[in-house]
Prior knowledge:
By secondary structure, the chain is mainly beta. It has one helix spanning 342-355, and strands at 5-6, 12-13, 38-43, 54-64, 103-109, 112-120, 122-127, 132-136, 140-144, 149-154, 164-174, 185-189, 196-200, 206-213, 253-259, 264-267, 276-283, 287-289, 292-294, 298-302, 308-312, 317-324, 332-334, 337-339, 376-378, 384-385.
Amino acid sequence: MLGITFGASGVFDRPASTAESTPMTATAPTTKTPAPAVLQIKPLGFPWVTMDPFLFCAYHDDAYPAGTAAMGVDDALLAGRQIGQDFSRKDGWSMYHGESVPGFPGHPHRGFETVTIVRKGLIDHSDSLGAVARFGGGDVQWVTAGKGIVHSEMFPLLDTGAPNPLELFQIWLNLPARNKMVAPHFTMFWAEDIPRLAAADDAGRTTDVAVVAGRLAPSADGAGGAPGTAGTVDAPLAPPPDSWAAQADADVAIWTIRMAPGARWTLPAARGQGTRRNLYFFKGASVRIGGQDVRSHAAIEVRADQAIELVAGDEVVEFLMLQGRPIGEAVAQYGPFVMNTQAEIMQAMQDYRRTQFGGWPWPDEAPVHGRDPARFAKHPDGREERPVVAGT
């Protein structure tokens, strides 16, 4: 549950509101003027603003120093930090709720899903189901909290002689009312298995898309892929069975997009009716989206029902794209619990106090999994898995 802070109640509180702001003013379209591709632009803060069916999106980019023998931060570097709740970014990094190893010790969730995309560094996961994992380098963990889970997400600093950079997204995806009390589910998407599209424009400048969720299909005119190719990812990895993303008409997609300097690529139209789409422009100096220049990092809502040309500026440009058809239900939230009514929130709090969502089977609240950097996952049923790396 990255980017969430402790409240006075002893559970986690959501930070500043991520409610949608007023759309940017635009001239009403006429029969001769096509509707603008860009619907609204909002500056990136922490966390990033989201819209239904997404609840939350945090981007972490921490330049951690060399680690200690215990895979944590040297005590001398912790001076002046509010240990236990450090979001300071002092020296380019935060401890978050970690005391020695940075990260997020055991905390509860109910009523939604977390999707964690780790681009650099490693996360050590442990949960009340008995599952553990070490993942990173492009891996994705997808957890359906459902009726309740407690988990920790720690960032072990394995390199004792060099910096330990960490870069990740954590996304909260809501569950519809009918699925809020399903059994928790733990899923790993290894980087080696995530479908990717490599496209090139007429000048040979590349665009790379990692498809975490959702089918990537070209527009009717073939836009969206490299010249002479279909530009399609027809078989994305399956989301957890009770996820909103598992509903065919939900049109949920989670992609990361990286464009070489000057590259052109057409983002294909979404398939569903009523789908909404945000492009989070988080790296690069400038980009042109549907003919409109954007020169600062921003959350950009674009029309989902039309193909839109993206043109990178003079630097590499990167986006996270989140899209989906809204669930359209009432949302009641208290920190790590997201339900439909305040009565359900009260019940969640009572259930957690009474049951601890199954209890915590680990010797401490911030476990790390040794010095071996190998990625792995052990599921609640004891099944173990590791990524299949090419050439091994």
